[in-house]
Design brief:
The chain is 46% helix and 14% strand. The chain is of the alpha/beta class. Strands 3-2-1-4-5-6-7 form a 7-stranded parallel sheet, with helices on both faces. The N and C termini lie far apart (40 Å). Bound molecules: NADP nicotinamide-adenine-dinucleotide phosphate. Residues 16-17, 19-23, 40-44, 68-70, 95-98, 121, 125, 147, 149, 191, 193-194, 196-198 line the site of NADP nicotinamide-adenine-dinucleotide phosphate.
């Protein structure tokens, strides 16, 4: 096995959905730790630009790149562009995700269209991004961290299609850990409730879930970002699903 490169500077980190919520906190932290950061967005251009500005104001390097990760060609173009701007990608945080809020027993509401749309972003989006960056990741002995969900392990979440898509993402994590070994480590961080725009309009439900956790305190995007960045650096971990839910599921 060839040893990993030992250059002084840290490699480029790509964070999908990196301009909002958990993604933004992760972009900011990876930049603080010394990575040039590619802040991917699909529609939230202003948020991505503001994240890049905040990183630059703190002395870091970042660029915002638009790509719908459910589109393979767009994901490949983003990786090529990122590589051209900052050099090869050594860390991928596949955080982009979407959902549809449906009662778990609303079987007719969980249409094929919803399943297909959620899988396209939550599963294929991660697959496209990692596959596009695989040559870089292998060359740099890099790391992938997916953002999964406790819904993927427990089956309960914002809807059946969402929970199943996150279960598939957790499966993709383990398969890619095999596929990209020995050079690349692939792990998932699976949050419970995190107070982001995800919960807009459902604040009462969010507060009641927080009250039900063991810690009784809300988990912030920064709490999750810290685990993501630490898992990316953890040389002895691959193929793992790391729950970050303040004891919500215990
Ligand atoms: N908040 C929670 O309670 C919670 C719990 C468990 C897991 N998670 C997971 O955490 C991740 C981040 O969610 P969040 O809470 O931080 O909410 P968020 O701010 O809404 O983040 C979702 C991000 O995904 C991006 N995105 C969606 N579709 C995309 C696409 N096709 N291509 C590229 N980017 C796309 C969005 O960017 P655009 O707006 O530009 O599309 C946005 O930046 C998601 O994967 C979610 O499933 C969240």
């Amino acid at each position: 096995m060839t040893p990993p490169p030992t250059e002084g500077s840290l490699p480029t980190a790509l964070v999908t959905g990196g301009g909002t919520g958990i993604g933004r906190a992760t972009s900011m932290l990876l930049a603080r730790r010394g990575h040039p950061v590619v802040v991917n967005y699909n529609r939230s251009a202003d948020d991505a630009a503001s994240c890049v500005e905040a990183i630059a104001a703190a002395g870091g390097r970042a660029v915002a790149l638009q790509a719908d990760v459910s589109d393979d060609a767009a994901a490949r173009a983003m990786v090529t562009d990122a590589n051209g701007q900052f050099g090869p990608i050594g860390v991928v945080v596949s955080n982009a995700g979407t959902t549809e809020h449906l009662a778990m027993d609303d079987l007719e509401g969980a249409t094929d269209e919803i399943f297909t749309r959620l899988f396209a972003v939550n599963v294929l989006g991660a697959w496209h991004t990692v596959r596009a960056a695989a040559d870089d990741l292998r060359a740099l002995h890099g790391a992938v961290v997916m953002v999964g969900s406790i819904a993927g392990d427990h089956g309960v979440g914002s809807s059946v299609p969402y929970a199943v898509s996150k279960a598939a993402l957790h499966g993709l994590t383990r398969s890619l850990a095999h596929a990209l070994a020995p050079e690349v480590r692939v792990n998932t961080v699976a949050p419970g409730l995190v107070l982001t725009r995800w919960w807009d309009g459902m604040e009462d439900r969010a507060r009641s879930l927080v009250r039900g956790t063991l810690t009784g305190r809300p988990t912030s995007p920064e709490d999750v970002a810290r685990v993501i960045a630490d898992v990316a650096e953890a040389q002895a971990m691959t193929g793992q699903i790391v729950t970050v839910d303040a004891g919500q599921t215990l």
